[in-house]
Amino acid sequence: MAVTKQVYASATAPWAATAVCDDLRDAFIGAGLMSAWFDSFSSGGREHRVLEIVYDNSKTYGKTYYWFTVSTAGIWLRVVSGWNAGTDVPTGTAFLDFYDNVTTAVNGAAQLLTLNSSVSFSCTRYTSSGRTFFLIRTGTDYLTFTIDPANTTFISLYDLNIGYHEGFFRVAIDSYVAGFSCLCRTRRALLLGSCLNNSTSATGYTSAERVSSYSMPRNAGTHGSATFSDEGFVMPGWTTAANPAAPSNLNPVFTGLRLSSVHSANLPVDFGFSAIKTSNTFAIQDNATVTTGTEEYEILELVKLGFVNSIATNPVFLARTVG
Fold it and tell me: How many domains are contained in the chain?
């Protein structure tokens, strides 16, 4: 198996904000998330584009709206429970359904990426079995994320009659922990909305909150302590230093990942976490080969501060490109 990979890179420097919007549009259409933007307008010197995902049309809050704002300085996101395409504003009640409905600023919005029109922008789509991860990039800066498609299945207690689904997840990797974070919510959001209580601070509405973790034991040196910043599921690995029977240092590619506790299905097996113990040469979108011509991957996320040799495990998120 292998992902379908496509690069959208019409925003070559110097570019206008509409070129970035067009790259996102084409990538979302290619992923099957939409056939066209639900809404498209300009305000406050920025371009605004709204993606509608229908998770269950029979439910009160069965639709979610992903509000992207783009300028030559960056890309921002807000996630809201309703949208009026006639007036170009979110619907509902402030803080419950949206942070605010001001389109001339980016209040309550999470910045996905800082941009500069003198540096080219691209969006790469990696799709397998109806699930897509997007890697948006400008120079060495990037963000890897997925948006739950319309056919996402949830556990039975997840009631879209009382709240909506905040389905934007970024890949989150720290020194020894890989996982997924939910980005953007309001109080009516079912997964993390309750953490907001009665807050009106924008930070809570836009922060990246980890919703799943996969940890990898580290080689802690002489004291031999297996410590994790956030354990979650611990994925085994082995080294020749610890176990003479091991033919080589190895961390397998772990698939069968789940975005969060409310999802009722795993991610396609073309996406996985692994670790690299002894290299500081890998960069984003480099190839990682298990068996040449049979099992090859591309790195979609890694430790942004750089790999550490020997004494640590360096988690990576992979998309299978050959196999």
Answer: 1
Is residue 12 in some structural domain? yes
Predicted TM-score (pTM) of the model is 0.94
Question: Does 306 fall in a domain?
Answer: no
Domain residue limits at 14? 4-162
Q: How many CA atoms lie within 13 A of 129 on its CB side?
A: 12
What digits encode the pLDDT tens for the residues 127-156? 999 999 999 999 999 999 999 999 999 999
Q: What is the pLDDT of residue 199?
A: 93
Instruction: Judge contact between 186 and 193, C-beta under 8 A.
Output: yes
Calpha distance 318→219 (Å, rounded): 22
Whether 180 is covered by a domain: the verdict is no
Q: Are strands 295-301 and 314-322 parallel, antiparallel or unpaired?
A: antiparallel
Rounded Cα gap, residues 171 and 142, in angstroms: 11
The amino acid present at 157, given as its one-letter code, is L
End-to-end Cα, the chain, rounded Å = 5
CA distance 50 to 48: 7
* Domain contains 73: yes
Q: Are 178 and 216 in contact (CB under 8 A)?
A: yes
Taking the C-alpha atoms of residue 103 and residue 278, their distance in angstroms, rounded to an integer, is 48
Is the C-alpha dihedral spanning 82, 87, 89, 92 positive or negative?
Answer: negative
